[in-house]
Amino acid sequence: MDHVESFLASLKRCLAQPDFMLDFYGLFMARSDEIRERFAKTNFERQTRVLAESLWVMAVAAQAPKESPAWGDLPRLANMHSRNQLDIRPELYDDWLDCLVQAAGRHDPLFSPELEEAWRKTMAVGIAYMRSKY
Ligand code: HEM
């Protein structure tokens, strides 16, 4: 299995646990006041659902040619996070990924250092793209 396939299998195990996404946001918001304030008015019922969907899209993007139709919502998402809208500083993606991997480690019973690498490698493509559109 390549790293994207390993990631997808792990993501599926994580999402089978109801608190995975909420746990991620708990970790992420505990990271700094700056991050917590960004989500002060967020509806987490919706946010956890749309983030889960975007993680599948990030995995597809990692396998498809840059900005091909398979990238789906990513251009819109990148634009939304850019300085013109949400203004998410590029550095914040490191915190985002660390917390995501930490949450996966808590919720995937089969998690391992190899799987952590698969998560990081798979997400790197979409993150680099989001940063490049800042
Ligand atoms: C590649 C990494 C990321 C992905 C895939 C992602 C995904 C998403 C998605 C799917 C949404 C909802 C879009 C919609 O409403 O249509 C969203 C909103 C948001 N994201 Fe991200 N995000 C990422 C990184 C970050 C980072 C690093 C921050 C930093 C704090 C952040 C802060 C936010 C905020 C504040 C919102 C709006 C929440 C609200 O509506 O109240 N995101 N993100």
Structure description:
This protein is mostly helical and 134 residues long. The protein has a single domain, classed as Globins (Globin-like, Orthogonal Bundle), CATH 1.10.490. It is 69% helix and 0% strand. The chain is built from seven helices and no strands. The chain has helices at residues 3-15, 20-29, 33-38, 44-63, 74-81, 92-107, 113-132. α2 (20-29) crosses α6, α4 (44-63) packs across α7 (113-132) and α5 (74-81) crosses α7 (113-132). The chain is globular, with a radius of gyration of 14 Å. Bound molecules: protoporphyrin IX containing FE (HEM). Residues 35, 38-39, 41-42, 47, 50-51, 54, 58, 77, 80-81, 86, 88, 92-93, 96, 126-127, 130 line the site of protoporphyrin IX containing FE.
Quote the average pLDDT.
96
Q: Could you give the order of the helices and strands?
A: HHHHHHH
The geometry reads as globular
SS elements, strand count? 0
User: Considering DSSP H and I runs of 4 or more, what fraction of the residues is helical?
Assistant: 55-70%
Q: What's the gyration radius in Å?
A: 14 Å
Tell me the span between the first and last alpha carbons.
33 Å
> Which superfamily, in CATH terms, is the homologous superfamily?
Globins
The chain-level structural class is mainly alpha
How many discrete domains? Answer: 1
Q: How would a crystallographer describe the biggest sheet? A: none
CATH topology name, in short, is Globin-like
Query: Which distinct ligands sit in these coordinates?
Result: protoporphyrin IX containing FE
Low-confidence regions = none
What is the CATH-assigned architecture? Orthogonal Bundle
Task: Estimate what percentage of residues fall within beta strands.
Answer: under 5%
CATH class: Mainly Alpha
Total helices: the number is 7
